Every structure is written in structure tokens, then in C-alpha cells.
Records
---
Amino acid sequence: MADFTEHQLASESIFSGRLLDVRKDKVRLPDGREAAREYIVHPGAVMVLPLFDDGSILIERQYRYAMRRHFYELPAGKIEGGEDDLATAQRELLEETGYIAQSWRHLLTIHPCIAYSTERIELYLARELSFVGHTGEDGEFLETLQLPQTEAWEWLRNGKISDAKTIIALLWLKTAQ
Amino acid sequence: MADFTEHQLASESIFSGRLLDVRKDKVRLPDGREAAREYIVHPGAVMVLPLFDDGSILIERQYRYAMRRHFYELPAGKIEGGEDDLATAQRELLEETGYIAQSWRHLLTIHPCIAYSTERIELYLARELSFVGHTGEDGEFLETLQLPQTEAWEWLRNGKISDAKTIIALLWLKTAQ
């Protein structure tokens, strides 16, 4: 296998915001030339596939400003400084939906945007769900619904679900059956 | 269904680079408060799932600097100003792999990073493939390989394939069978 490694020559912070940490590096390409690489440094995230005993799933509907519309997506959130992946998944599920789960299983690590972000998403399957009350995270506006799998496949097919991480979790569930 | 729309109050260009166009907007939240939204404006992209008659797929291996390692991924690329989605898919397949396809079918529209990017990816299935010669795009370093589907599922399962868009295309193929 060929080695296409690009070696860092310089690195510059372009923007460090509330959410985005943008960097611009100068690199040495495999053929010796120089090039610029712009990318987002991301702390990583988790996603939870909450599966009820009857096979239905818990999904959220929220507004995504970048796209200027509402999306259906599974519970997810960023890993906070030093927090364990599984602890993040458990926290996000509770904060966003009011549910806890007795059974947790790590399914996949996903890289959503390898062209311009360091983000990884750890996908967990959560079962044996119980509703313990919805506190809600300050400043988060969302609603949850329990969706039969047949409807989820239909929403994938007709484009009503188009969020990549959610598509992966649902297709994983379909192929696991 | 609740309306969680966030209304733009102001919009500012933070960085406009070779690849990344970063914006920071001030918005009015559904509860009347104000918040900041940082995001990437992206022109959109295409991905191609090149499927051979024997069921194997054409996949690429290239270095992704943001993650500092090589990735296996399907042919993909950005839509250039005014270019048609299908024309982009045909161009990227030829430039990156040297293949053309007689049969093209649009499968899905995917949003890879709804939390902080406007990117959409149009996924095409390409069949009846013929190799017409690899010119290569200037400054693109990659190698291609023909992968049996059984091996592709194994690479999904063991994490050797972790690129989100590629996982979606492969799982789509698996569920379509």
C-alpha cells in the first residue's frame, strides 16, 4: 500500500468559537510540494439508538440552523472535556429524552466528515428503556417520538430522514435483523 | 408539531478559505432569547457507489489530513459552481478512478454534519463499469481497489471502514439485497 502521508509544516488557529475550532495548516505533499489544509478540530460525539422492547425506536425532531430546517435524528451530543464516551451517551439520552437504559452496547465508531473535521461519533445501542422524566438541557428545543421500524425505513426511503449518523444507526439495525 | 425555528438577526463571515467558508450568525431562539450559531457553508458533494457485475465494489484509499491517517472511502467530491449533480458524479468517478459507467441511479440525499455544516451528499449507484484510463486530478493522491462485498461487510464490522458516507452506501447495498 502506498504512503500518501501529508506532513505538517505549520499550523495556525483561524477561529476558536463557542462551537467551532478552525485550523489552517501548511503541509508537505507526497510529491514534495506544499499545500494548505483547512479543518475543524472537534472533541468527538456520541449517538444513541434507543430501541424499545416492541422494536420501535425513540427519535428526536429539532431545528438545525445551518440547514434552516427541522431534522429527525437520534439523540446525540458532544463529549465534554475528559468525559467517558458511555457516560456521555447516558447523559445525552437522559437530558434530551428523559429516558434511561439498563442495557448499553457499543456498535460502531463513525467519522462523519473526514474531508474537513476530526469528529468521531461513537454509536451506542440502548435497550431496556424507562422514562424517568424530562428535565431538558438549558437552551435545547426538541421533541421526541416513538417510531415503529417500518415507518423509519419508509422515512429513510422517502428522504424524511437524511441525517447521516441516524441513517447509519437505522441501516445497522435493519441489517442486524 | 412544534415550531423550533431560529430566526437570523445578523450574519458574519468569519473565514473564507480555499476549502472552508465559516459563518457566525446571531439568532432569535424560540423562547425569545438570542444565541450564536457557527457553521460551514458548503457547496454540496456527490458520492458514487461503483458496483461491478460480480457484486464487488470499487473503493479508494487516501490520506485525510484532518484525521492524520489513510481512509477507505467511495469516490466523492464537491459540486463545482453551477455543475449538475450527476455530471459531478460522472466527473469524479472518472478523475479519481479512471472508470466510466453506463448505468447511473440516484439513491439518497445525505446530510453528513447537520450540527455545523450545510453540506449535502448525493449518492449515486454506478453500474456497467468500464476502465478507460486513469488521468488523475492534479494534486490528488489515492489508490483504488476492487473489494468483494463479503470483505466490505467485514471491514465495516471491524472498523477498517469508518467513513460515514461510505458506511451508508455499503449498508444501503446490503439492505437492498
---
Amino acid sequence: MNYKIRSLREKMKLIDIDGMIVTNPVNIRYLTGTNAEGMFLITNKENVLITDARYIEEVNNNITIGDEIIVYDGISVSEDDYLGFFSECSKIGIEENYVTYAKYQNYVRKFRLKETVETNNLIENMRMIKDDDEISKIRKACEITDNCFRYLQDFIKVGMTEKEIALEIEKYFIKNGADGVAFETIVASGENSSKPHAVPTDRKIESKDIIVIDFGAKYKGYCSDMTRTIFVGEVDEETKNLYNFILGCQTRATSKIKDNAEGKLIAKSLESEFNNRNHTMIHALGHGVGLDVHEIPILSTRSCFTLKENMVVTNEPGIYLPGKLGIRIEDTILVNKMTSEVLTKSDKKLIVI
Amino acid sequence: MNYKIRSLREKMKLIDIDGMIVTNPVNIRYLTGTNAEGMFLITNKENVLITDARYIEEVNNNITIGDEIIVYDGISVSEDDYLGFFSECSKIGIEENYVTYAKYQNYVRKFRLKETVETNNLIENMRMIKDDDEISKIRKACEITDNCFRYLQDFIKVGMTEKEIALEIEKYFIKNGADGVAFETIVASGENSSKPHAVPTDRKIESKDIIVIDFGAKYKGYCSDMTRTIFVGEVDEETKNLYNFILGCQTRATSKIKDNAEGKLIAKSLESEFNNRNHTMIHALGHGVGLDVHEIPILSTRSCFTLKENMVVTNEPGIYLPGKLGIRIEDTILVNKMTSEVLTKSDKKLIVI
């Protein structure tokens, strides 16, 4: 059995469940190494992946005998088979943060479940700590992102639209070995930069623009996430000061990221810095990065996560003055024992193109 | 109040609920015309949209007084406010196919809900029937897709990779006024074509290849969905026969699509045609298209939907011989009273490039 499934089975014992239904495809990928929609059932007898014709070829190419996973095409699984899977299990764990209310009701009926137990992100908690293979994939995704940022500084010209730049990023990623983008790229210029969730528009880059670029590549399923804010032609003193304030905040936060640090305290100290200057932190300071670009831990004043060695998290303070401008600086960071390693290595000094 | 919310309120009365919690962002967009994550609450007093700082600017730009929607930034909503929203409602509808089991439990606590009612895709059912504005957006998305297909027939050359072609499609869409792709483009060449869910790879197009291209644009939020299977250089007789068989199936299915036709019967008659030739239909015949690229109705032998005027659905029979080849032909189709209109108008005769 692969070590991830083995480790999950040990954790299941600790919370006193003897079966589990996994349907989040990202968790299925984590546990089985394959990209398939369906149901992964962990029973006290076996590991069963029920998928459908669309994925059977992909699954058979990726799952090895060593994984100890029995694969079924859903069409060949009868109602009686469903009743049998958990017939000797007493407490079945569910992914309560993924499974819909309707699906939950359906599982209870279909498997005739005796007792269901909320597993409180059991698999997502395992996913927080990355192994060497996962780190090397994230590292590669960050490297491609860094190279792309270097390329962009030459590429971006006055008159191009935000959409054109976003598309060029995707093209660069794909040409350079990535699976594609890790999430929808944000290229927010001029007053659009004040929207933290801006979608690229047909707005053309102008001289004196500020441009927030929030982007990341996916490499063999693993994500990177980086934001840089750059300036076109020139930048006024007030904006320069604001930029350096955010950069200072981001640098100080990075220096606090290490094994055993409390995410909440790091976010709170940044919040004080913001408040002291009459600014507000309108979003979290950061989040975990892995198979999902947004995963736990969350680093914010409202979440409680202790950072641990081999977590990978972002650090992304931002300031937004509606209708005027926005500035955000973000890195993807590997948590180490005594310190941290910034995996996205692009320059953060104020860049004017 | 806008007509969609008014119409929803009437349907709520019919199923005897006097409140509803809407969190599916696509449903929020449908009802409010804005692109925001959060909660849209319909109570017996008012319509309330609770979102967060990331979306406030977007929301304020899109919601008009005529919509009669009260907008809150979630951060300013207290626990008491939550208790108040549904205090005078007795039965609250939920989106049981969207809300997770954990969120459901949370809503029950947070709003102190007396009784929740599964709404059985109430809003998704409304979304099946498109209004003139929605149809004109889907029509435009289809037109961009058709133009792109014409462009591709010149663009695709031996030696290009599947990924390059997929990216060129996205680039074309964006250059030509689309929001972007409606879903991840499939470009599956050679033996990859036998995977109905293929992801574009670095495989280079070769002479004698078959290429399945499944793609669609999104225009002002609305999707198109089209598949064409084309051939490089030459095509053998056996494959030509198979192509013409699928084309015949697709054409016959289209001729049956009209107001009051049963999706299941159309799919069943195609299944018989497949089975008569010892082939298997491994996926549904089609699905609704709108704000989501996959929405109800589903046209398959296992679903029961009666087609109605102004539904927009796909018709996409496909055949897959693992390790050898795949052929799929798909159109986006508007259901009319006595007939249907194929909105994706690209040629379906066998194309050799």
C-alpha cells in the first residue's frame, strides 16, 4: 500500500473510524496519484476506487500494484455491491467540507451507513506537510513563475491589454513545461489594481500605470503563487512610500515564518502595522499551496494554525484604495525548522518598466 | 425587483418555503447579475447579498436600485444580524446539491433555522429556460467558436503540440471579444483521441492523425460548447465509415430536438444505433449550456428531462476505441417550438487538413 494511504489508515484509527468515503478529486489524486473523478472507499478490507469510463485509461496508466487499490468502472457496480463495501464497518468518515448535503444523504442510503463521522479535514491536514517529491514539484512551479516574471518585464508595453498579458503568461507557462496556470491570472492595471480579485480586462496599459500581477504555474499537479506590483514609466513619491511600506510588512512577515510559528500572531502583527497607518488588511495574509492553490493552513487574524516544517504557504499583504490603486506583494514560501525559504525568488525592489 | 428574483419568489411559494439561502456563485450571478462569492438570502422581508471586500466594488458597479438587493460586507454583519434574517420565516430552502454537509450544519446554527427544505434544483430549473438576453450571449459565444474553428483549419500544422493548439484557441477567443474559454479545451490527437476527457499534452501532430477538438468560448458569462474531429493528410476507409456513422447519429439526434421531446428517448434511439453496430455509448448524449458549460437538462438514457422551448443543449455522440482512436461531433443547439436551431454552425462534413 502506498505510504499516504497507510498513513491515512493510521489517522483513521486515532479518530475511531473504520471506513471512509473520499470524493474530493484533489484528495483522490493525493492518495492514489491519479486524476480521476469518482469515489475512493477505504474499508476495513480494501481500498476501492470507483470511477467511470472517462477516466479508466488514465487510472490504469497511473495506479500500480504496490498502491493496493482495486479499480471499478462505476457502471459495473451493482446496488448490492454498494451495500457490501461498508457492511463490516461501524463508523464511516465523510469529507463534510466537500460532500454536498444531497450527496451525503445519498451515501447514507446507498451504502446503508450505520454511523457517519465528520473527519475535520483529515486528508487536507495530511496534505499540509509536503514530502520531498511534492516540494520538488512546487519548487519547479515557482521556478517557471520566476522565469516568466523576468520575461514579462521585457514583454509588457504601453498599449497592451491586461488580457493579452494574462494570456502571454499562460503561453509562457505551457511552453516552459508547466501543466498550465495554477489559477486564473490577475493582471490589474491602473484603477483596476484596487480590486484584489480583478479579472483581466481589455484595459490598455498606460504610462504611469501601476500593474498588479498575481500568477502561478501548475507543474505535475502542484501549484505556485506569486504577486508582483510593477510601475510603468514613473511612480510618484506617495505610491513609492506605500510600496515600500507593503514590502517592509511582507519582509517582516517572512522573517517570522518557521516551524512552530503561529500564523495568527504573524497576521496580527501585520494588522497592527496596517492600523498604525490607518490602513485595513482586507484579506488574509496567506494560505497553503500544494495540489490546490488555496489550501490549509490559512494565515490570518481569524484562523489558528501553527506552522510546521515542510508546509508551503504564501505571504501576501496588500493594500487597496478603491478607484485609485492597489499594491500586493506575494511569495510562495517553504517552512523550515529554524527559518523559511522563499521559493519564488523574483526581485521585490520597486520595478519601473 | 428584477424579474428573475420575482419569479424565484413565486416558485418558492409553490413549494411552500418563505426563505432561501443561495450560495452557489453561478446562481448568485443569475439572480443578481453580479459576479460575487458570498450568500444571497431571500427572506420574507428583503433580498440580501452578503459578500466581502474582494467583491464589494464589482457588486456596487453591477447591482441597480431596481434589483432591490441590500448589500452587506460580511465583516459588518454580526451574529445577531444572522439570527435576525430568517427570524420571521418558517421554512428555509437550501441548495442541497451545492452546499456542503458542513456548511449546512453551520447555517442551521448560524441562522437558527427552524426547518430546512431541499429545493431540488429550483434555481437550476429556472436557468434551463433562457431569455432573449441570455440566448443572444450564447449565440455570440457560438459565433466566436465557429470563427475560431475556421481559423484553426489554417493554423494547425504537423509538428505542433496539442498544448500549442489549445493555447491558440484561448488566444483567439480573447482577441475576439470572449471572456475566455468556457472550459478547459480538449485537443486530443492520434491515440489520445480515444480519451473522452483528454488533457492537451506535448504530443506533436503527425501526418495521418485524427484530432478531436472540444472547445467553447465564454461571452459575458455565457458558454458555447462544440466538438469537431478532423484528419491530417489522409484518412482510411474504416475511419471514414466510423466518422460518417457518428455524423449520421448526431444529425438524426438533432432532428429530434424540439419543444416537448424527451431527452431520454433521443439518447435511447442513439444507443440502439450504437449497439446495432456493437459499439457502446460511454457518456451522455448532451447537457444544458448557459452560465455553466454543464448544466441541466442532461440528455442521456439514464435521465428524464423533457426539452422545452428556449433551452440550450449540446448533442455530442462519440465513439472511443482505447489506444486507437476517438471520434466525437458536438453542437450547441437552441430548442425551438417545432424544431431546433444549431447555434454552432461549423461544417461537419469530413475535414482533412
---
Amino acid sequence: MHTRIKEYIESHGERFLSELFDLIRIPSVSAQPARRDDVLKAAEYVRARLEEIGAETELLPTDGFPLVYGKIEVSATAPTVVVYGHYDVQPAEPFELWQTPPFEPVLRDGKIYARGANDDKGQMYMQIKAVETLVRLGALPCNVKFLIEGEEEIGSASLDAAIKKYADRYAGDVMLISDTSIIHLNTPSLTVSLRGLAYVEVELTGPCRDLHSGHYGGAVENPCNVLCSMIHSLRDENYRITIPGFYDDVYELTAEERAKLAERPFDRTEYLRNLDMADTRGESGYSILEQASIRPSLDVNGIWGGYTGEGSKTVLPSKASAKISMRLVPHQRHDDIAEKFKKHFEAIAPPSMKVKTTTHHGGNPFMTPTDSTGYRAAAAALKECLGKEPIPTREGGSIPILALFNEVLNMPIVLMGFGYDTDGIHGPNEHYGLDNFFRGIESIAMFYHKYAELSKA
Amino acid sequence: MHTRIKEYIESHGERFLSELFDLIRIPSVSAQPARRDDVLKAAEYVRARLEEIGAETELLPTDGFPLVYGKIEVSATAPTVVVYGHYDVQPAEPFELWQTPPFEPVLRDGKIYARGANDDKGQMYMQIKAVETLVRLGALPCNVKFLIEGEEEIGSASLDAAIKKYADRYAGDVMLISDTSIIHLNTPSLTVSLRGLAYVEVELTGPCRDLHSGHYGGAVENPCNVLCSMIHSLRDENYRITIPGFYDDVYELTAEERAKLAERPFDRTEYLRNLDMADTRGESGYSILEQASIRPSLDVNGIWGGYTGEGSKTVLPSKASAKISMRLVPHQRHDDIAEKFKKHFEAIAPPSMKVKTTTHHGGNPFMTPTDSTGYRAAAAALKECLGKEPIPTREGGSIPILALFNEVLNMPIVLMGFGYDTDGIHGPNEHYGLDNFFRGIESIAMFYHKYAELSKA
């Protein structure tokens, strides 16, 4: 079976890629209202590709962008795998930092360069092509359902209600997702935990209008300066976050768990070289890997205020704003943290400033057990296809809706991702390795066989 | 004479205003390359109006925008007044904060609303109309030369070389400038000192590309967060600037000088109400007026980094930037302060960040004596036209080229401004009172008579 799968992928790979490129060319940026039609076009494109491989399909309406539903039933007694992915992408700005236009995919050095090449068009499309491979070989041993959404990059705003509404259609035994990283194709891994996210936008208003910095500078508090001081104060000298109660629910790993985590290969020099940084710093007492996975963080994702054009303008601005997000770890809850942030931020503002805070999408952290049938099937598939037992890893990113799936659909979730952390997702020049794409399809196809076997046992 | 001056202004006031409006409609923003033709158009417009009132005129080429030169000689023995002003304006962004479009002047509540209504088109045009008044009345007692430049808002970049080149043409006895404020038409004042300006742009680069804040957040230092901390650290808890050596050359006023300054009427409640601020704070130990005039300041004029568009983006940005300016007081020197800033800013950056600093235009602080013929003539004119002896004031703004005029043209400078600090220059909804415009023309015309009289004595 493994050989037949590899042969099919080899003889159809060029078409797989060409289909993926067509999907990438649709700039389905869910955060930008001007891209609305493109997001819908991407949904329809995915639906049509599912139809082609023999699925019953439908675009399920939600309060926002539709869910692409697809279903292939092989038998009433076979186990059912629910595949989740998303057809929307992050904004591609700033465009000028891209070597080639973000929505015109190109191959360079064995990698696909484009917005969505990895996250999640590239990874999601592997799932569809893995199922195509099994269908065409007459060797699909499980029922499959597809749940491909269009609002992942804006916090899956409509998914909560939609999942509850369509819960019956999505009944199944295991959920399979490719939207995370693998350490390397030579060092396979499966993600067992993800961080959550709380995202708040803040706006300070000082004087009610922009002022001349000569007439007022020194006397009137400047919201840009004040915002800097407030943001500075959100972390102490050990880079611990100072928001009261922030660490209350943080799960502290045992010494054993931390030791296991430290087994993951990590080369600090190479890590910094890749980022072109002389040094870096995070919370005292934790390694870089720990700082970026098992510890919460606070980052300014955007900041703006005053005159940012060419040349100089001597303005004392009326307003300053920032987008600030916090990555959360088990068992922090995003709504609790967003509230604590807002309360604290308002409390530390000087009386000269009016504060407005707005919560953007959030999501809770996630952990999955390693003894489920799904996890074991994925581990077996990776071992067969990539040659090694996968390492269970804890990742720093977030898939906010995993907690929801756990709660509403009530099935184990397997995070079988094939991207690299260095793929530049969410930034310019996002890319995805051709090897990752094709070996991913192969491993996913094998997953279905391992899962069917283990389910029978 | 005073009566004839008032009558002439009254009967020609409507045309004066209409001419000023035409000048304002030319968006001569010197900082914006796209406005280049408009800046040149404004120069030509001013030249043509000078020609109309009987001046020999010329556009004197410089390395940047031309100087508008104008000369009216009444006799070889009469004293010569050199009028300085500028025909360029600040950028009007952000446009959406203007109640009416910035380059379409309108009258509202007795005020002209437009970019440049005050700074400096409105004030500069008073000078031209005052001379017209005297010329048409056959009562101009002094020779006049006009020096109207087009780069004041970008630091008079070409003026240094140009003034040296054209120094002979601009020989004279006193320089008269309307580009500052008056306390009120009911409380006349003359500016005796101005602050200087050092303006630096900084850019931090952390990782060489934008990163996913989930994969890297907590481990990789974020240039936006670091920039906030660095800016915060530039002032201590007493709002004193922490740059080493920053205060070395600051002139500390005597107790007597500070007492004199405190005589200026000031209503803290009204000041805050006008800004719609509950409170404000500046350097400890100084009053608001002092903080904004005799003490140096440090303001962020602009800050930007990361994603600043709609919605949310979970990016850990590669870069963060800010425009930071410092108002300087006698005897600080802008080049020295800019150097100290840059050296300090580079020194406090953590090893994770690459720092780039760029100096924008600067200017030295200025003080003028109160016993010169020019100052006494201006005081006498204001007393006659506005009814009270003017108060000598120290202002917070900067006219960077005054130090240059002092040095190269070597004549006393009289700062006879008629704007209010609340006119919103450099910000949205800049305005200028009609009364200020017309009473200004009247007072300036009287200045020529007082100056001629005092020169004879």
C-alpha cells in the first residue's frame, strides 16, 4: 500500500501543485473587507476540488464566511476521520518586503513562496490530496468529513455557533489537522500542546487635537511617550508580565516534563543566525524553547501614533495606539486574561490620558493526550514514512478553535503538521518545502490505514 | 497717520483676505516631494503680490526652493527693514481630523480655518499688506526688503548657504518677523526667546524578517516592545531627560527672571479644558509655562511598527521606528544634542537590536535684547494700536534660522507675532483670527513709523 501511495503521488504531483497554486492565487485575506469576494472564491474553489475527488459537498452558511463541508462515506462501520483546515490567509502587508508578489506563487530552491504556501493552504491541500490518492487507489479505509473554514486568521469568529449548529454532520471518531509544525522531515514530531491567545487593541488620547510640539512640548503629556512607558511597564526586569493575576492559572511543567522538552534538538547559534540577531532575551529562568512554548508572552504586534510620513513634523499627537497580544499556556483562559489586561492597562494610565481598549479574537490553550488511537496512528504513519518515531512537541502558536472542537465535537484531535518554524508564516516571503508537501500527503494517506488497523484491534 | 492706516485697511480688508485665501489654496507642503510644484507656485504667487505693491522682485535660486526677494527703496538715508517669512506649510495629514478641507480656507466664528492660516501664510501676508498700506498712503518711511523662504517647515535646509550668498542684498538695520504668538490682542506681547530643536529618527531592527508571534513570542525580543522601553528610559521619574550631558549647557533663569515670567496671565483650568485633559505633567519643579518655554523637552512626534491595519495580525515585527524631537533652550546647541542623543540611544539598545539613527533638521535656541531700536519701536506700535505695553515673553516654538540671521546678517531681530498658542498650527483645524490678521496689519504699519522716528532720535 505504501508503495502504491508513493507512486500515485509521484505521477500526479505536478497537478497537485498546480491546483494548490490556483488556490494560493486567490487572495483570501479574511481580515480585509475589500477581499471578501476572494475569500468566498477560495471557499468555492476548495468545494469544487472536494467534489472532484468524490465527496458530497456543500458550503455551510455561517454568520461570516461559509464552512466547506465534504463527506466521503466508505461504509457505515468504518471509523470516521474529520479533517479540519482553513482557506483564509493572513494579510500580506507590507508588500514591499516580499521578494516576489505574495499571491503569485513561485518555486525557488525547492520551496513554494507565497502567502498561504504553508498556512494553511499548503497544509490543508495535502489533506485533500491524501484522500484523493486513497480514493483513486480504491483504498480509503475510513469515512472522511471535511471542515474547512474561512475565518481562522480572524479568530474563527463564526465557528462557535456554526459548529454547534452543524455538530451532527460532523460526528466522527478523530479530528485530523495539518496547521502546525514538524521539527524536521528527518526528526518527525507531533504537536501535543499549543498556546492560546488574548489580543487587545489600545488607544490613548491625550490632548483633544494634535498640538505644536514647540508650544506644548514639555508641559503637555504626549500619548506616544506615555504609551511607550505603559507598554514598558507591562514586563519587569526579568521579562515577567506584571499584569496582576496573569500567572495565576499557568501550568508549571514538572522537572521531568521540562527534561523531556529539552531533548528536542536545538541550536541557539543557528536559531539566532537564522534571525540575523546577535542575541535575544526572554523570561529569566527558561530556555528559548520553553519561552516560546510553555511560557506565556506579551508582544506588541503593531504600534502607531503621530506623524509617520516622510520627513519631519513637529507634532505632539493627540492619540497613540497599539495592538498587543499575549500567548497563553494551559490553564490560562483568554477571556480572563483579556479582562485582566484591560483592567490593569486602564489602571496604570496617568490621569492625563483617556484609554480605550478593544478585544480582538482570542483562544484558549490546548493539550492533547498521547495515548489516543489517533495519536498512535499518526505516530505509526510518521515512523513508516519518515523513518523515526515522532517526538511529542509543545508549540508556541495557537489554533483557538481546538478547545471548541474538544468541547462540542468531543473527539481526540491529532495535530499532524508538516511546516517548519522557519517558513515565515504570517510574515513576508512565507514559504513551504516541496518535500514537506509531498511527504506530508504520503504520511497523511498512511495515517488512514494505521488508524483503521488500530481501530479494529 | 494711525487713522489713515486704519481706514485703508478697513476699505481694502476684503481684498486682503481674498488674496490670502488664494495663497492658502496652494498646498505648498515642502516636506512632501509630490507637492513640489505647489511650493513653487506659492513662491511665484507671493512674488507677484510684492510686484503689485511696487517692489522690485526676484525669485532667488537656492539648492532647494527659491527665496522670494522684494525691495522697496524710499531713500538712500532711510533705515532698512528686512521682513522674513515663509510660504511653505506643514503637512496637513491626518486629513480626516479636519472639519473642513485644509486647503480650502473658510471663515467660521471670526476665524480663518486652513493649513497655513496662521503659520505662516496668514502672518507673513500681514507684513505684505502693511507695506502695501503705507505705499498706497504715500507714507512708507523706511526701505523694505522681503526674504520669504519655502523651506521653513523642513528646517530651512538651503537657507544657510543662500543667506551667505545673498548677504549683500539683504543688508539692513532690523529684521521683522511675524511667525510667533501674542498672548492676546488685549494683552500684547513680544517674543524675546525661542527654543531650539533637535530632531532624530530612529529605527530598530530585531529579527531580519517579520515573525509569527506564536512561534517566537516570548523568546525573540520584539523591536516594538524594546523601542517602547528605550523611549521610556529617556526620561526619569521626574520627567528629566536622561541623556548624559543633556543639561550641560542649559541656561537656568534667575529667580528674578522666573518671577517676571510668572506675571504672564495663565489659567491652568482653562488650559486643560482647552486641551480636554483631566491633568498633565512635565518636569518636576517647574510651572507649565516654564516647562513649555525655558525648559528643554523630548517628544515622540511619530512612532510606528508592525501591523497597523484593520483587524488583528499576530506578527512579531522585524522593525520599529520613531521620530523623536527635543526642544532646546539657550545655550544648548542642536548638533551637540543630536549627537548626544544618538550616542546614548545606540548605547542603551540591547544586543538583540540593530539601531539606525538619522538626524532631521535642527536649529539653535534664540534670545533677543529688549533695548534695541527695533524692540522699542515694536513695543511703541503695539502700545498705540492695542492699548497696552507689551509683555516680553519666552516661547516654546522654534525658528531655527534666527541664529543664522544673527550671525550672517548681523542685525537685531524683532519677533512681532499675532497668532494664539491655541490656533492649532501644525495640527488639524489650524486657524487664525480675523482680528489678529487685521490688527496685525495695523500694528506692523505703525511699526515702520515708530522705527523711523526712533532711528532719527
